[in-house]
Each structure stands twice: as C-alpha cells, then as structure tokens.
Write a structure and sequence with these properties.
- 2 copies of one chain form a homodimer.
- By secondary structure, chain A is an alpha/beta fold.
- The first copy, chain A, contains 11 helices and 10 strands.
- In chain A, strand 4, helix 4 and strand 5 form a beta-alpha-beta unit.
- In chain A, helix 7 packs parallel to helix 11 and helix 9 packs parallel to helix 11.
Chain lengths: ~300, ~300
C-alpha cells in the first residue's frame, strides 16, 4: 500500500476482540485513524469480503489458529492491504499469513487469557507510540508495569470484595472510552472462569435501557479511572448506589466515594487499561477460589477455539 | 465528497446500534463496503474525532436528540463526508445536522423501541437496495411485511414458551451474521422491559468462553434462520440441549429439532432480521405480562436518553 491507510479493519474473538475495543480509542485518539471491528463471517460464510484496499488489516489471536481470523488476513493480503498479526504464537497459520507479526511472547498456558490480554494491549500501544514517534507518550507507557505491580499487591482487599460476588449468578461491568474494552474483558473472565453471567456495558449505553435491570444487591463493577470520560461517573455511581446495587469501583478518582473502592495508582487514561484490568482479573481469581473452581480448567472450554 | 466512500462510520445507541450491527453485514455483503461502528466519545470527550474524509457517516437515533450522536454527524459535515441520519424525528437536532435524512415514520410512543427498530432496519435495507439498483433484491425486501404478519399470528405459541422464561433472571440470545444484531436487540428488550439479564452473543463468539456458563435450565434463545451461517447451528443446538439448557429456537431450518421451535416463514437471510425479531419482541411482551410489568413504562427509563 502506498498511501497512509484510511482506516483499520481489526478482527479478533473473545479477549482479542476486547484488545480491539481498546484499539478503537487508542488509534482514534493518538493517530486519528478510525477502527472498524470486522466481521469474519463476511469472509468465511457470506464469501463477500468488503473492500480493504485502503485499510490496514490487524488480526489479534492468542493461538493464531482460528480459521476465520486467518481468512481475513489472507484476504487483506490478496487485496494489497497492509496486514499485521498480534499473536502469542507467531509460528502459526496466522503468523504465516500476515506481512507483519507482533509476537506478544506471553507463552500463556492457561485457558482463560490474562497475560496474553495484557501483552496484546501493550503491543498495540507500542505500535501507536512508534507510529506517532512521540517520546513523551512512550514514557507514559513505560510507567505502566510498576503500576500494575502495585495493584497486584492489593489482592487481599479484592479477596474481601469477592465474597459479596461469589454467591450471585449475574453482574454488570461498566466502563467507557479506553476502558470499554476492560469492562468487556473482566466480564468475559467472570463468565469463563467463575460461571457468573457478567454483562459488559458502556456507562453511557447502560442508561439507554439496561439500567432498568438494576436492583438491590446486584453486583456492578464500575471501571472509572480519571480521564476524559470520568465526568459522568460520580452521578452514575450515585444512581447505582441509590438503587441498592453492590458496587465495586476501580478508580483513582477521589470524587468517587460510594460502594467498595479499589484504589489504583494515578496514570494516564490511555495507559490505564493495563492497570484497571488487574483488579478485575484478581476478582475473578478470588471468586473462583471461593467457589472451589480451578480457574485454569474452566468447564466447556479448550485452549484453542477454532471458529469458521 | 467526489469519490465513492471507502467505508461507513455508523453511530447509534441501544436499539439503533443494533440496526448498525445489521448494516455491517448488509452493506458488506450487498455493497462490499466495510462498516465501522463508531465511538461517539472520541468526538465528545476525547475531542479527537478520527479522519472521516473518505467515509459516509450514518447516524441512527429514534429521537434525534442525543448530543453525542449529533456531534458525530456535525463533525462528518465539517470534514466534508456524506452524512445520513435515520430517525423517527426528522425535526430534531440530528435531522437538522445531516445532509440526508431518512425519516422512519414509526411515531413510536412507547419507551422501548420496536416499530422504530423494524422501520430503521427497513430504511437501511431500502438504502442498500437503491444503491445496488437491483430489482430482484427489492422484491425480496417487499415480501417481508407479509412474513412479519405471519409471525405476529403465532403469539399464543410464544406465550406458552414465555412461561419457562418468566421465572428466571438471566438468559442468552444467540445469533450470527445478519442476525447478530437481532440477538442484541432481543436481549436488550428482555433487559429493558422484563428485567431479565439477557446476554447477546454471536454463536461463534459464544464458544470462545461464555459457553462455560451454560447449565441446566438456563434459558437460551437461538436465532437461526436458514442462510450462510446456519451450518454450525445443528451442532450448537445439540451442545446446548446436551447441557440441559432451556432452548427456544427461531428458525425456518428443518434440521433444527431440539428445544422449543418457533417456526418462521422461509425468507432470504438478508431480510430475515425483519422477521426473526418479531417472536423475540412477542417473547418480551408475554414475559412482561406474566410478571405483571407494564411494558410501556419500564422502570428507570425515559423516552429520550441524552448522552454526551
């Protein structure tokens, strides 16, 4: 491709698609590039792939083996698009198909992705930093690992919060903007390994309907670090608390005081998803332990999921 | 804009976004145009709208009043994109902002959108038919109203199925391809008016994690009309039935025999979302009646939701 891509066409499933949700904000805000989360079945079932000639095609897949994801990259190459794979397994059909491969090197052994998720977030962040060529944002990203370690040290506090969650069978996870993908990712972990039917929502979208479900004792996770979308969070938290929901808040915003607060270190909003996902992963782990589930062997799942 | 748009940037919230999910398949399959479901907060909160110069910008909003949706159209105009509004209220800020306005004329009075949803599906379908200029697909679309009426006549049968759903507090709605948006829309109705925490999933995505949650008696709606994505449905239905889930299937596919089947008329897959949503809307209505809820006045919701 000669010109700068007009848009990114990004595909992934499960946790990988949640990295894609992050990429919509990251590439939008830092590079001004619109990101379409693609529809693999247009390629594999409808056999009518859209016109990708002016797109960069990015595929994210832990195993690099799902045929539908590979077929999007193959079609992108056929059309002459720039193709990029982000995968834990570069020696895979996906790694072979893409022109550029970012190996995330998590070597994840468990079924439910956690390291791969974080590393894939980091990979797409590094890509944005490099394209933008801006040292100040590189430094912001480099500060993330220390903040992630800090949150890992709060495990006991999260274990205590988990007790209120372990007895229920449904929940919500709310976030917006950069942390919309985090809400999806934590909800997915709660479903995969805790068998808790957790529903992710944008905190804006939530007010367009789902808020009707909220009732006393319903567990709700609110992911609300300081940033461009945090203005509405205090009133949303008031409303949820007013309904009697059991709210757990992941934040570094001093204005948020209702519910149980998991305080995270200050960080730039665009880097915050690397940090905010950690308490959610720990929450899932502790709920598992409380329920007597082995989080590394959830029922009904295999490590490599092949979809067509 | 002089050239054909390279992609569509589409925004909507709630039911309107579900129409957008349909548009991803419709405009992809019929016109080869990639559709990005946009991120309004990039415009209103991050103040970094992406480059839309080679996009057609489509906004879908029943009320035409949500400031975040309007701001995407306004930015599209500023950048010189083609801008289109699909709205029940052309005499609104959104109607004023867009160059082209498709008024869906549902004049919907209830809070939870049903006619507006169907009419918006029809509006985007007509747009695709006109752009493609193909009389044979126009005839396929014109056959839809009769098939919708047919399903409306099956209300008693759906009422019977609703009894098994009314006592639960969680559920799944599964669909894929053209009916991925239908799964989202029916799940939204079940949340909005039945307070049932229904979770929409692509039937492919479902196998990447959420399937772990399935247990005996869990209500699952499977939207599986015949079409390009129906190959996997018989084995998925076997698997769900094998887990003891209470499965309700909306289909015209003779191969699907487990669970409770709501048989719909034969129709082209691309038109099927107009038909398949009707049993879901009836399901929500009957659950409401069984629970003693007034479906026109769900708690916690107002007709016009303004988000920024």
């Amino acid at each position: 491709m000669k010109r700068r891509p007009r848009f990114v066409y990004l595909v992934g499933r499960g946790s990988s698609e949640n990295v894609g949700r992050y990429a919509q904000y990251l590439l939008g805000e830092k590079l001004g590039i619109p990101v379409a989360l693609g529809n693999p079945s247009l390629f594999t079932h409808y056999l009518r792939p859209p016109d990708l000639k002016e797109a960069a095609v990015i595929a994210i897949s832990q195993s690099g083996q799902s045929p539908d994801i590979c077929s999007v990259i193959e079609e992108g190459r056929r059309q002459g698009s720039l193709t990029v794979a982000i995968t834990d397994n570069p020696d895979s059909p996906l790694g072979d198909a893409a022109q550029q491969v970012l190996a995330v090197r998590a070597k994840e052994g468990t079924v439910a992705a956690t390291q791969t998720y974080s590393n894939s977030l980091a990979a797409i962040s590094l890509l944005a930093v490099c394209i933008r060529g801006d040292k100040s944002i590189a430094a912001e990203l480099e500060a993330a690992p220390e903040k992630m370690s800090d949150v890992l040290g709060r495990s006991d506090e999260i274990e205590e919060a988990a007790r209120k969650w372990a007895s229920g069978d449904r929940a919500f996870a709310l976030g917006r903007g950069y942390n919309y993908g985090t809400a999806h990712e934590i909800a997915l972990k709660l479903k995969e390994v805790c068998y808790l039917l957790a529903h992710p929502y944008s905190s804006a979208e939530f007010l367009h309907g789902p808020v009707a479900v909220v009732e006393k004792g319903l567990p709700i996770l609110l992911i609300a670090p300081k940033g461009a979308v945090s203005g509405e969070m205090p009133s949303l938290l008031e409303r949820l608390d007013g309904c009697g929901a059991t709210v757990l808040v992941i934040t570094n915003d001093e204005r948020l005081k209702k519910g149980k607060i998991i305080r995270i270190p200050d960080c730039k909003e665009w880097v915050s998803p690397l940090v905010t996902v950690v308490p959610g992963q720990l929450l899932a782990l502790h709920i598992c332990n409380l329920k007597g589930i082995n989080p590394d062997r959830p029922r009904g799942l295999e490590k490599v999921t092949r979809t067509w």
